[in-house]
Amino acid sequence: MPVTTDIMASYRRPRMVMRRLLALGPNEGRALAILMSGCAVTFISQWPRLAREAHLNEQDLYSEMAGALMAWLFIAPLIFYALAFVSHLVLRALGGTDDAFAARLALFWSWLAASPLMLLNGLVAGFIGPGPGLTGVGALWLAVFLWFWISALREAGWGER
């Protein structure tokens, strides 16, 4: 299935999408592609906010974008792998399976699947700026991301040992 179809299906049945991804078998290349896609979308979602801040603070937009590129495409993936390892340890301690790949895929897919709301958050940050609208969209994104991640972890074997 195309990734966009899976993203939209995640908003209806996140466990079903995760089940389908897990059924494809462990493939670290696919997991890394999902993670890098999510990080790339996150980087793109930062553009309106960076443009607004550069304009208001009379800073160079390109240096701000270079910093965001470095952060989201080189540093963030390492942090995500560390977070996935910690979630795997927590999953195992709570009686889950020993499948570290499933824990990684759950985090990486949840990040990518919540990306449409991240893009909306970036637009609100760039065009409206700080305020209740940005806080509301950010809270909605966080809630959806956590819903996807918890659902994916449950499908990955949380409590099925």
Short recap of the structure:
By secondary structure, the chain is mainly alpha-helical.
Outline the structure in words.
The protein has 161 residues and is mainly alpha-helical. Helices cover 82% and strands 0% of the residues. The protein is built from eight helices and no strands. The mean pLDDT is 92.
Sheet having the most strands: none
Shape assignment: elongated
Average pLDDT figure: 92
Number of strands: 0
Order of helices and strands: HHHHHHHH
Strand content: under 5%
Rg is 17 Å
* Helix content, binned percent: over 70%
State the secondary-structure class. Answer: mainly alpha
Unreliable runs: none
Task: Report the span from N to C terminus.
Answer: 30 Å
Task: Figure out the total of helices.
Answer: 8
Notable characteristics:
mainly alpha, 161 residues
Provide the fold topology:
Layout: H1 3-10, H2 14-23, H3 28-45, H4 47-57, H5 61-93, H6 100-113, H7 115-127, H8 132-156
